[in-house]
Specification:
Elements: E1 4-11, H1 17-27, H2 45-50, E2 58-64, E3 70-77, H3 85-92, E4 97-103, H4 110-121, E5 125-131, H5 140-151, E6 159-160, H6 169-179, E7 192-201, E8 205-214, E9 216-218, E10 222-225, E11 230-233, E12 236-241, E13 243-247, E14 249-251, E15 255-259, E16 273-276, E17 295-301, H7 307-320, E18 325-331, E19 335-342, H8 345-358, E20 363-365, E21 372-376, E22 381-384, E23 396-411, H9 415-424, E24 428-436, E25 439-447, H10 448-452, H11 455-462, E26 468-478, E27 481-488, E28 491-492, E29 498-501, H12 502-519, E30 527-533, E31 536-543, H13 559-579, H14 586-593
Parallel strand pairs: 1-3, 1-4, 4-5, 5-6
Antiparallel strand pairs: 2-3, 7-8, 7-16, 8-15, 9-14, 10-11, 10-16, 12-13, 12-15, 17-19, 17-20, 18-19, 21-22, 21-23, 23-25, 23-26, 24-25, 27-28, 27-29, 27-30, 30-31
Helix pairs in contact: 12-14
């Protein structure tokens, strides 16, 4: 066990975690140059396309120190985006130390601080690493000053490196061995292992990733999952070396995988404890804090007979992403589906893309919303995340929505545009802080509903990519909330309803009506698309009708003949509109639910 080190790399988004992991893997010769590719630990297509890490991946790196001793280093790579902070918390629970990566040109940013606090909560050893020292804009002295002032870490302990050019990699390895303590635990005690990840293999069942704290797992051992008391016989154990590499046993201090023929997906829970069936531990290990979703949206299959395959896909997906929360839901317009909770808008996008690509699902998502709180006149209160359950307006005493404290770090020159953006999103109580020359931290209290749509994208646009953004939910505050209904030909379309602030209602209603007008096919009668608050119409677009020229057969003669034919046509169209049913195509839902300004 003295030769094992478990560590993680944490940093703000785009500070070079995946590149550093690439260099460490190359340094250890785990992969030859011919098979190597950038972002080697990022196995998903989406990760490679977007250049972000979504899933924390594990790899076992063999390393021989300068003194000639051989070590096994378990690296757990983590995402940097605020939406995937749950992945980071799971990785940290399996480590003894972390490399805290700071970009030499960007300096300390919002997520750097958030991840540092998470590492401190787990009492981990922190090694600061200043990356990208090869950049012309690198300012090492300024970054050291920030590490000292903002993080409270001795800047002289930081290691300088360039993951891209492979500078300082050996120094990082040596620091891991010297500064991070070996894991504690005993191979002779009853088994206690923490499940921190899992994925589904159609041939072998669930493959469980775990960190062993006590005991030893061998193939043939009978194990028990403590959450639901299910017992299984271990078929195979091993470690992660880019591919799964079989080993006779994995013992205390190690990170590895177990295959035990677990066919029922729901049996495996992330954060559960594995122990011996005949000699269990007294109490389960402390798992991870329960995740609280902040953005809610419903997922429906495009073809209603795909409902069962969507349910199977969500079960398998949940195994790999424990932060997704879902329950059954139904809609008059879209049929049977699921109401899902997400950690943010990027998380929602990633879930949608992964369901479509990895599980081959054709799905549609309703407009994202947050949890609102309504106090009713009879003294009860109600939490609503779905517009379908909006209470009767006459019974509402007051309504509250969740507020966040957003901290935005930007270079000085962007302060004006960022302040304007925050004010447009109903931001209040702005405060300015100057962490270092040339950079400003702006703090705003804002409604969460204004942030979940496209705030992050807008912030990146107005700051040309330099703005970094982090937030925490602070409290609920009173707000003037209404329910906006969309009517097509006088019929409410429940899937397009949304709860929002009264000041924003007309602007949103006009945008949705215009998008629907462009997508709904023309009929033989006029179709009115309206936005309404209760019985009051606040916006309207019209899909014009096809028109047959009924007067073409009249050659001259009295005008009354023409008028008679036009009146007859008018009556026919009126009757048609009353009995006519407007089919709304899926593309119209897709267009209306997009939140962009295109």
């Amino acid at each position: 066990m003295k030769q094992i080190r478990n560590f993680s790399i944490i940093a703000h988004i785009d500070h070079g975690k995946s590149t550093l992991a690439d260099r460490m893997i190359q340094y250890a010769h785990l992969v030859d140059d011919r098979q190597f590719r950038d972002q080697i630990l990022d196995s998903m297509d989406i990760e490679r396309e977007r250049g972000i890490t979504i899933k924390s991946q594990t790899v076992n790196i063999p390393y021989t120190s300068k003194k000639g001793e051989e070590y096994e280093l378990n690296l757990i790579d983590t995402p940097g985006h605020v939406d995937f902070s749950y992945e980071v918390s799971r990785a940290l629970a399996s480590c003894e130390g972390v490399l805290l990566l700071v970009d030499a040109s960007q300096g300390v940013e919002a997520q750097t601080l958030a991840n540092l606090y998470a590492a401190m909560e787990h009492n981990l050893i922190i090694i600061p690493v200043i990356n990208k020292i090869d950049l012309p804009s690198a300012d090492i002295e300024r970054v050291k000053e920030e590490i000292d002032q903002e993080l409270g870490i001795d800047p002289e302990t930081s290691i300088l490196c360039s993951a891209k050019d492979g500078i300082g990699i050996e120094e990082i390895f040596e620091a891991i061995i010297e500064r991070i303590p070996p894991p504690v635990g005993s191979g002779d005690k009853p088994l206690a292992a923490l499940i921190f990840d899992a994925h589904y293999d159609p041939f072998r069942g669930t493959i469980v990733s775990c960190r062993v704290f006590d005991g030893t797992i061998r193939s043939g051992t009978m194990i028990r999952l403590m959450y639901n008391n299910a017992a299984y016989k271990v078929e195979e154990t091993g470690i992660f070396r880019l591919k799964l590499e079989q080993r006779k046993e994995i013992s205390a201090g190690s990170v590895g995988y177990i295959i035990a023929g677990i066919k029922t997906i729901s049996d495996t829970r992330i954060g559960d404890t594995i122990t011996f069936d005949d000699n269990p531990v007294d109490k389960p290990l402390a798992g991870f804090k329960e995740v609280k979703p902040v953005v809610f949206s419903s997922i429906y299959p495009i073809a209603s007979d795909d409902y069962q395959s969507l349910l199977d896909a969500l079960e398998k997906y949940k195994l790999n992403d424990a932060s997704l929360v879902y329950q059954k839901d139904s809609s008059a317009a879209l049929g049977q589906g699921f109401r899902c909770g997400f950690l943010g808008l990027l998380h929602l996008e990633i879930v949608q893309e992964r369901l479509e690509r990895e599980f081959d699902q054709s799905i549609i998502l309703t407009s994202p919303s947050v949890q609102y709180r309504f106090y009713l006149t009879d003294g009860t209160d109600l939490i609503v995340d779905n517009p379908q359950y909006y209470p009767d307006p006459t019974e509402i005493d007051k309504a509250e929505e969740p507020f966040i404290r957003a901290s935005i770090l930007v270079p000085e020159r962007y302060v004006g545009v960022v302040m304007k953006l925050c004010m447009e999103r109903r931001g209040v109580n702005s405060r300015l802080n100057y962490p270092s020359p040339g950079r400003i931290e702006i703090t705003f209290d804002m409604p969460l509903a204004e942030v979940v749509f496209d705030f992050y994208d807008k912030l990146k646009s107005v700051t040309q990519g330099y703005g970094s953004f982090d937030y925490e939910i602070i409290d609920y505050r009173e707000s003037n909330l209404i329910k906006l209904d969309i009517l097509v030909n006088g019929e409410k379309v429940d899937a397009l309803s949304m709860i929002l602030h009264r000041d924003r209602a007309r602007e949103r209603a006009i945008r949705v009506c215009d998008k629907l007008r462009d997508e709904i096919p023309r009929q033989m009668f006029k179709i009115a698309i309206q936005g309404a608050i209760g019985g009051k119409i606040i916006s309207r677009s019209t899909v014009s009708a096809f028109r047959k020229d009924v007067t073409a057969k009249c050659y001259g003669g009295d005008i009354t003949r023409k008028r008679k034919l036009l009146e007859k046509q008018k009556k026919g169209k009126k009757r048609m509109r009353m009995v006519g049913n407007v089919e709304i195509p899926q593309s119209a839902f897709m267009a209306a639910l997009k939140t962009d300004d295109e």
